[in-house]
Amino acid sequence: MSAKLTLAIPSKGRLMEQVTEVFAKAGLVVKKVGHARGYRGEIEGLPGVDVAYVSSSEIAAALKAGSVHLGITGEDLVRESMSDADTRVTFLRPLGFGFADVVVAVPACWIDVTTVADLEAISGAFRRAHGRWPRAATKYKNLTRRFFAAHGFGDYRIVESLGATEGTPAAGTAEFIVDITTTGETLRANGLRILDDGVILKSQAHLIAANLAPWTPQLAKLRDDLAKRLAG
Amino acid sequence: MTAETALRFEALEAQAQKLMSVFTKAGHEAVAPSVIQPADVFLDAIGEALRARTYVFTDPDGAELCLRPDLTLPTCRLHVARHADPAIKARYCYNGSAFRFQPQGADEAHPREFRQAGIERFGESERETAEAAAITLIMEALRGAGLNDWTMRIGDHGMFRSVLTAAGVPERWRRRLADAFWAPERFHAELKQLTRAPDANARKLPRELLTALDPGDTEASEAAVGAYLDAHAIELTGTRTLAEMTGHLIDVARDIDAAPLPAAAASLIESYVAVSGPARACGETIAGLLKGAGVSAGPALDIYDKRLAQLANAGLDLSRVTFAAEFGRNLEYYTGLVFEVISPLFGPASPIAGGGRYDSLLRSAGAAIDVPAVGGAIHTERLLKAVKEARA
Question: Is CATH 3.30.930.10 correct for B1-148+368-392?
Answer without folding.
Answer: yes
